[in-house]
Amino acid sequence: MANGVFHTGYGITINLTLPDLGHPGHPGLLEEILRPVDERDRGLLECLDHHASRICRSQHADKSPWMFVSARRRNGRLILVASHLPVTHKATPEESARHRAMKERIARCAERHGLSAQVEARSTDGRIITDVLVTGAGGRRIGWEAQYSPITGETVRRRSRKAAEHAITPLWVTDSEKAALIDRTPWVRVDDFSSRDIASRLAMFIRGGIRHLQIWKCLPTSERPCPTTGSACGHFHSGWFLPTLCLPKKPPTEVDRLVVASADGEFVPLRTRAAGDRRAVAHLWVPVTDRDRWWDIVGPPESTTDPEDTTDPDEEEIAFTGEDIDPTCRYGEQTHTRNDTRTRRDHPDATGLHTFARAPRSLFAFPTVSPTLDATATQRQAAATRFGCPIWEIGPCGLCGAPIHRYGNRSTHACRSCRTALNHT
């Protein structure tokens, strides 16, 4: 990444470390160079080494000598840097076939369940907004993006923002653990299926992007170790876990089910932040009941659109350090890649761990005031005979008030039917 770039339109060298970029006679220059690449000439900004006919190291890889400017965090400050644009990627025949098969599968599934599906939905100006637009009965609009070819994180954010501007919740699906879209937008990851398998009736399970809320009291007898001390702190913990890491384990969600569940509002997008770094943001898909319980714990977001917000988490002013321009091409030292170089199963901070001393009353399944026992002496004696306990150990079920073995050894707080109902909620 470089701190300088050549503007081919004006024939000037831009210093990204100065507030006026080194050219006070060009007002609006900053806004111009920060425009998305698809809204300007791709060759507007050029690598300084390439412009000076020196060796540009990007040409030995999959990068072009043309640049784009973005704000990046360095040493705790937000600064402007110039990065090489990738060589325009043309999808391979297999990438195109899988992309097409996934779009068709999503549309067929939606229509099979009575939902509206529009492939390559377009805006009023004729531009494609999303690959497949699925509309639920309540008017909820989910924009599915089947991404099988490399893409930059900035492109993901820009396309997600554009979908949100049209009241569409983006939902990106990929089969790559290195996809740059992971945690930059609401997303899910599936297995690496061929186009033939995608088009078939085979179940496609979601391997990443969906999590479930787990809440537990941190005691020596807890099945989970304390995430803060490693032993037992006595507090409550809550966090978002993959289905296989839940206690008990939860079954994975299929793509076909998510098509319907997201449009019906059964699954919703959620954005979590790391406790130690509020800029570490992860995007998840979660059951709406879990989201509501989460809000009971941490409080609802300040903005009602926060769960579906795809903008950058925190806006701050750019720092201009006033350094001299470095004309040397820095490609390879800190590169902006279309896909991440490291394997990412899920963002390490996606659990959104939260510790609290007392659980909110709204989380308790049992009412604050237990029902009273409304039973005659004959009914109490019959219950004692049925449960094989003394009559004085008969009391009301904590939920429905029916007579049960409530006190003493091997007693329970709720009847069998109420416990069964609770375990299935």
Walk me through the structure.
- The protein is of the alpha+beta class.
- It folds into three domains: 4-86, no CATH class; 93-210 and 252-315, Trna Endonuclease, Chain: A, domain 1 (3-Layer(aba) Sandwich), CATH 3.40.1350; 365-423, no CATH class.
- The protein has nine helices and 18 strands.
- The chain has helices spanning 29-33, 48-51, 93-112, 153-165, 195-199, 255-264, 288-298, 377-387, 416-423; strands at 4-7, 12-15, 45-46, 63-74, 77-86, 116-122, 128-135, 141-146, 169-174, 187-190, 206-208, 212-217, 236-241, 267-273, 281-287, 354-356, 394-396, 403-405.
- It has a six-stranded mixed beta sheet with strand order 6-7-8-9-10-11, sandwiched between helices. It has a three-stranded antiparallel beta sheet with strand order 2-1-3.
- Residues 304-314 and 334-348 have low confidence and may be disordered.
Mean pLDDT: 84
Class per helix and strand makeup: alpha+beta
Profile the largest sheet: 6 strands, mixed
Shape: elongated
Strand tally: 18
Oligomer: single chain
| Strand order of the biggest β-sheet | 6-7-8-9-10-11
What gap, in angstroms, lies between the N and C termini? Answer: 51 Å
Q: Would you give the CATH topology of the largest domain?
A: Trna Endonuclease, Chain: A, domain 1
User: What is the N-to-C order of secondary-structure elements (H for helix, E for strand)?
Assistant: EEHEHEEHEEEHEEHEEEHEEHEHEEH
**Rg (CA only):** 28 Å
Just name the CATH architecture of the largest domain.
3-Layer(aba) Sandwich
Helix fraction bin: 10-25%
Percent of residues in β-strands: 15-25%
What low-confidence regions span 5 or more consecutive residues with pLDDT below 50?
A: 304-314, 334-348
Counting DSSP H or I runs of 4 or more residues, the number of helices is 9
Count of folded domains: 3
What is the CATH level 1 assignment of the largest domain? Alpha Beta
Protein name: Competence protein CoiA nuclease-like domain-containing protein
Biased composition (Basic and acidic residues): 333-349
Domain Competence protein CoiA nuclease-like: 95-179
Region (Disordered): 331-351
